[in-house]
Amino acid sequence: MRITTNMIRRNYQNNLYSTMGGLDISRKQVETGQRISSAYEDPASAARAAVLDRRYARNQDYINNIESSESWLDEQESVIYQISNIADKISKDYSVAAMNSPIGSTGRDTYAEQLRNLQNTMVQFLNTKYGDSFLLGGNVGTETAPFELTDTGELLYRGLDVSDPANAAALQELANETSYVDIGFGLSFDANNQIISSTAVNTALPGINAVGYGVAADGVTSNNLIVLVGDMADILAADDFDEAEYSRLWDLFQEGTNQLKDTITELGTKSNMLETTKNRLEDEAVSLQEQYSSEIGIEPAEAITNYSWAMYAYTSALKIGTGIIGPSLLDFLS
Prior knowledge:
With 334 residues, this protein is mainly α. It has one domain (51-291): CATH 1.20.1330.10. Helix content is 62%, strand content 5%. The chain has 8 helices and 7 strands, in the order αααβββββαββαααα. The protein has helices at residues 5-32, 43-93, 104-126, 168-175, 208-211, 225-237, 243-296, 300-324, and strands at 129-130, 133-134, 147-149, 155-157, 160-161, 180-181, 201-202. Helix 2 runs antiparallel to helix 7 and helix 3 (104-126) runs antiparallel to helix 6.
């Protein structure tokens, strides 16, 4: 069998293309840190890697949800903490003993005005926004603040008087509003297509749950902390100071203050749960990355060694080619 020059050239070219292909593969291994770049190179490993990749992406979504929820809860806690500080100030500076008759009506008028200023400040805190949403508005939209203190002293939540017994059912429904976030607890729904609370985290905090709503046991006095501050101011501004009534409202106010502190504790507990869950998910993310790397990853040292050998083979092939493919007549034509 006679071996022609064209046969040698074709064989050389095929081998050179193969060498270039190996060089390209090794270069991609160095750049990506992956052993394979296409599924056909190792279908079984590629399939397992695809599953791990989806799990990792879902894991990162959960972590992002937790981080967003943590920021939201931190802001809620900050607002409640500020309102609690005002309540503590009222407890300290506006006690029954401080409001007794020796201060006189002029002094009580001053205290009444100061209480109303603090009342307005508390309402402003209740209407704090985070981004485009109200922190303590439940599922309210972004157009209207959830709380409004009227000129006559009523406090409205989503347009409803929080102290009107006729609004009890509607306020209860608003107080139960939820906003669930999926953080990897296996989000599930019940027979009524409602989210099962144990499978997600509720980030909604209707403000009336923190400051109270409805009426006290007497069926008349407001059970709302903000309204109680206004009622106490009214007693101080009256011509005759009713110490007994002021003392009764004071006791209810102290109960509302304790409710604020309970809300702060609940938010702190929820934040701790989110942080624990986040740590678990981050550990899982590391494990998924290791599994993914074991399926299609390649050690950097191995990848660089492969690339060096491929480059050496390619360079050698080019040098051999100069000896195989000699000059032709066309090379000497100008």
